[in-house]
## 1
Amino acid sequence: MKRNLAMLVGVIVILIVYLTGTYNSLVTTRENVSEAWAQIENVYQRRADLIPNLVATVKGFAQQEQQVLIGVTEARAKVGQMQLKTSDLSNPKLFAQFQAAQGELGSALSRLMVVVEKYPDLKSNENFLALQSQLEGTENRISTERRRYNMLVQQYNLRIKRVPASLFANMFGFVAVEYFKADAGASAAPKVAF
């Protein structure tokens, strides 16, 4: 009887240790996703902070291109209004809205760079060149951070979907998180006309 009781206690202790380890692993993986998301927000904020300076620099050279400048400003304002919390990362609709707003801003910035090509004096302006370089670097950082985020989301989503962790994930409210997806039309090569 003592032997059976000792075995039962041993099994319970092993089960508790296993459950604790599984839970802690799920928490760690989820926190890695949250940290990656925070870094994406950081880089997006950097881009948003650069835009007013870029628009002001271009505005002096390209007065007749007001529509493009207004488009960039409006897209930046829309992005500023669309905040996505870590808890919203599992909501496909909100995530898609956030990604669409960021895509609109990227598109507006691309149109702005096309306008810049019309103004040779602007292209040689030291302030503009510095801002353009900062913006290009920021766009590269965004791409890198999105890739890192997607890798961590994959690890997390796999972790919560595999047995036996999936049983505990459901019990403790761990839900799948959305991936960043390519913008619509991103697979098509841009058309260049001279």
## 2
Amino acid sequence: MDRIALLSQVLEQNPTDAFARYGLAMAYVAEGKPEEALNQFTTLTAHNPDYVPAYQMSAQTLAKLGRSDEAIERLKSGLEAAARTGNQHAASEMQGMLDELGG
């Protein structure tokens, strides 16, 4: 069974499993399916608003698609999540990306 099928099966059992949802999003990124990945990142942050890596990776995905305004908004939300969780490393990386995008 491929990774996407396996993770989808896990999520059928537990739709709010943050680790599986993030893994599924990253699998879609790896397979060149950015829209599917973005849908998974959005679902993930809706269920787990403090899952900081989802904001960072979704912003990177949006930036690669030339959707800078959306990437900036995602980074701002990610910075808020990083502040809530005390994740200074991710905050620093996201702030750097935000600066590059002109946010």
## 3
Amino acid sequence: MRHAPFAIRVTAIALAALFFGAGCSSDDASSSSSANSATPVAARGTTPGGNDGVTSARRGTPVKVTWEALAHERYLYENPRFGRRPNVGGKPDFAIVLVNEAHPEADQIREGRVRGGQGVGSGVITNQQMKDLLAGLDQIGYFKSARGTMAQAHLFNDERARGRVTIDRPQGSVTLLSVRGQGRSESTKHIPAIYSQAKQAIAMLKNQTRTLTVETIGRDDLPYR
């Protein structure tokens, strides 16, 4: 499988997620092709919007995207190659959780009531931003390489695991898991690059949100633990 240059792909995802969808809402938060099979779910809002009492932001497919640094990435942070961690801006996020406006947890995150755990940054993005993010991930091959989350959950604690990118939607949950050694196999050598790009796009989106909570590390509150 041939992939576009790394910098171009990262830019494509970031542009789609941060600019094309800025300030907009969509009736569906699914991406093209692999992401189009979700059945739209309308979550009730407190402010009436139309005859059904559901605001336009609430209509659509609820989506949650989670990035989490696993054992190897955490080890590299605690044991930097040059012997000293940069002490700028405090500790980094070890996990980021993004939901769209149609997700039931959106209001909880906005109001600071989400059980995010320590070291978890969380934020709410528009339905359109989520749609663009999923479309960008689809373009770089995320959905072709991701597998069912529960089938891989036992590997999340493996010391070789770098990190994961998980997408939860009504039709199920899938995860792209990056593990040391994948680069040596022809069938998996593309996964680390896809994982890295997805991670950067998620971090950029989180930094654009105003509704987020950033604390210090604690993994027990994350999904699939």
